[in-house]
Specification:
The complex is a heterodimer of chains A (about 300) and B (about 350).
Chain A lengths: L1 H32 L6 H23 L3 H34 L3 H23 L4 E2 L8 E4 L2 E4 H23 L1 H11 L3 H4 L4 H26 L2 E2 L3 H16 L4 H21 L5 H15 L14
Chain B lengths: L1 H22 L5 H26 L7 H20 L15 H24 L7 H20 L10 E2 L1 H11 L4 H21 L2 H11 L1 H6 L4 H27 L1 E2 L6 H14 L4 H17 L7 H15 L10 H4 L11
Helix pairs in contact in B: 1-7, 2-7, 2-10, 2-11, 2-12, 3-4, 3-5, 3-6, 3-10, 4-10, 7-10, 8-10, 11-12
Classes of the chains: A mainly alpha (about 300), B mainly alpha (about 350).
């Protein structure tokens, strides 16, 4: 019984880690720009594909051993994915922001960018699924009936480290202070001599970089890649970010784990086709009772 | 005199020509089905425009309500008027199907309006992006419930609507589906036009401008929100019901978030708060989808790219928040549409 609970808990933590990593990217961009970056789930997908190409290149063409390939794949994937994210920002979002277009039009542009990424991938690489090469030897541990692998532990620890790092960036560094300032007042901040576009680019680098990391970890855990893998997980991660209170790093992290836990627990008790039904009903109820999410601050509206 | 009735005459003429063309089979079945999808898309985008355009909320779960309408009206139709493996022999005489069909579609609309309460009640307290999440969640919940209802086919889908249509055609030999789609499209646009120009419509745009100020000015915001959400989702249900009968087969997978995205695109392409923009963009979008069909998968790169470019150069959509009569004032001489 206890082993069963612990087993589900570990599964939930691992599954929630992916949601948390993606939700962090949503919440960073939202906190700074109040923009729902709907292309983020697809940036995650692109990250997984970049990781696939980098890892295959390092393993087969250069012939590095697995651990060295992994050590190189992580930074390369993060850098290349953040290039994709920043390109989206430069090409699609910034011109609209300069024009002062309604926020919702930027959201629609983001949705369209996501569709372009998905289908460009489908058109270029074809519909065949890609198998991710194994980078590290998976070891299975069995402690008192609880089964876990070193990969699962790695995923959970990476998510926690990422959270701590981003929390440190936002609360302790100068860039983070500028981010918080922008989310507080977008018009006064440039007058104080803070380079607005610079900070926004940094935000996109951080968000997309960690989406790339999530893509790499996801591809290592579930080694089948397909172009639509980012869409559903992206929407769900966005929901996790909102339930946590969008714009708050702690909220995104907690919301991701909460969603992962609910999904795993539902599957443990009910048939798996009930997963979405229960997960979304729980989230709906949370939002009805806490309309601004778990960590969200209710803003008083002035007239 | 002519100015007063010009729209009526034009609509009757258009409907008559459409019926004639379909009856004499002068247009191919393909073009006819594209025209019918056009009508369904007009219903969907116009009804979503009430919430996303006029009320200024961001609802991205419109396909969920469409799904409710589609399932309720198709199950009801098959249950009453067709022989089916699950429900057995028809309950009523199939020759009555012709008279009952509009009520079946409207019943789907009413059911979808009730499902709209799922979004309307949380919207009393929740706004903006949090409400957007509730609508996405509602979409997922509705699809998930239907996937788990084994009796109506679950995720395999539900069919049998074609026999209802053929029993209608047995009674009076006319192409009924194009006629009903045309009538309901006109009905939807008329209802929405009446709604937004009524006192309620003024309340809706007051909520869009400033909810707190509207409430202080004695606008009953909760009541207006409830009614607007229910009208919008109910009309989406009507659209869904027609969609189900046009295709003759429904499955929950075709009402997922991508379908909602498609409707959202039509609304923003046409312009927030412009009914004629919604109608125009739904027509354009359907034509574009069909015209680019030979490109296959490239189609889904070209269409979003076109939209991104459109957003860069004309971010307010085709019509902005103006109606056709405001953009071309000389047109007002010829028609009056209330």
């Amino acid at each position: 019984m206890l082993a069963n609970i612990l087993q589900n808990l570990i599964n939930a933590l691992q599954w929630g880690s992916f949601y948390a990593l993606i939700a962090l990217g949503y919440t960073l961009v939202y906190g700074v720009l109040t923009l729902i970056n709907f292309a983020h789930g697809d940036v995650f997908m692109v990250g997984a594909y970049i990781a696939f190409f980098v890892a295959t290149f390092l393993l087969t063409t250069i012939g590095l051993p697995g651990w060295a390939a992994l050590a190189l794949t992580i930074p390369l994937t993060m850098i290349l994915t953040s290039v994709v994210g920043v390109t989206l920002e430069r090409v699609a979002y910034r011109p609209l922001r300069r024009k002062g277009a309604n926020r919702l039009y930027v959201v629609i542009t983001a949705l369209m960018c996501g569709l372009i990424l998905e289908h460009a991938n489908l058109a270029i690489l074809g519909a065949s699924r890609k198998a991710f090469p194994p980078l590290i030897q998976e070891t299975v541990y069995n402690v008192g009936g609880v089964v876990f692998t070193n990969l699962k532990l790695g995923v959970i620890f990476t998510a926690i480290l990422t959270f701590l790092f981003l929390h440190w960036v936002v609360t302790k560094t100068r860039v983070g202070m500028a981010m918080r300032a922008i989310s507080y007042d977008k018009f006064a901040v440039p007058l104080m001599g803070i380079p607005l576009d610079h900070i926004i680019v940094v935000t996109f680098v951080l968000g997309s970089g960690f989406a790339g990391l999530a893509g790499l970890l996801f591809a290592m855990s579930y080694p089948v890649l397909e172009p639509y893998m980012g869409a559903l997980i992206g929407w769900k991660a966005f929901i996790a970010a909102v339930v946590g209170g969008i714009g708050d790093i702690r909220g995104a992290f907690l919301g991701g784990f909460l969603l992962g836990a609910v999904e795993i627990l539902v599957v443990a008790v009910f048939p798996s086709s009930y997963r979405d039904l229960f997960a979304f009903s729980v989230l709906l109820i949370i939002l009805v009772f806490k309309p601004t999410g778990l960590f969200g601050i209710a803003k008083t509206t002035k007239i | 005199m002519l100015r007063r009735y010009s729209v009526h005459i034009l609509l009757i003429l258009a409907g008559g020509v459409l019926t004639y063309l379909a009856y004499e089979e002068l247009v191919s079945l393909y073009i006819l089905s594209v025209l019918m999808f056009m009508g369904v898309n007009v219903i969907l985008s116009a009804s979503l425009n009430l919430v996303n355009g006029y009320m200024g909320e961001f609802s991205c779960g419109h396909a969920g309500f469409m799904c409710v309408g589609a399932y309720v009206s198709s199950v009801l139709g098959v249950f009453l008027f067709a022989k089916d493996k699950v429900f057995g022999a028809p309950l009523l005489d199939p020759s009555l199907a012709l008279y009952a069909f509009p009520f079946i579609i409207l019943a789907g609309g009413v059911a979808a309006a009730v499902a709209g309460l799922l979004v309307a009640i949380p919207s009393y307290k929740t706004r903006g992006d949090y409400l957007a999440i509730i609508t996405i969640a509602a979409n997922y919940i509705i699809i998930s419930i239907i996937q788990n209802l084994g009796i109506i086919g679950g995720s395999r889908g539900f069919m049998g609507m074609k026999s209802v249509i053929s029993s209608m055609e047995d009674v009076v030999d006319l192409p009924w589906m194009p006629i009903w789609v045309f009538i309901f499209t006109v009905f939807t646009v008329w209802v929405l036009r009446r709604y937004v120009s009524s006192t309620f419509g003024k309340g809706v745009s007051a909520i869009c401008q400033d909810e707190v100020a509207a409430e202080i000015m004695s606008v009953n915001t909760n009541k207006i929100k409830t009614i607007s959400f229910m009208v919008s989702s109910g009309l989406a249900g009507v659209g869904g019901g027609l969609f189900a009968y046009v295709i003759g087969y429904v499955n929950p997978g075709s009402f997922n978030i991508l379908k909602s995205t498609e409707v959202l695109v039509m609304v923003y392409l046409g312009g927030m708060g412009s009914l004629s923009g919604s109608v125009l963009s739904a027509v354009l979008f359907t034509v574009l989808l069909e015209a680019l069909r030979p490109l296959q998968i490239i189609k889904w790169i070209v269409i979003p790219l076109l939209l991104v470019i459109l957003m860069q150069f004309r971010p307010e959509g085709i019509m902005g928040n103006k109606e056709l009569g405001d953009v071309f004032p000389w047109l007002k001489k010829f028609y009056k549409f209330k």
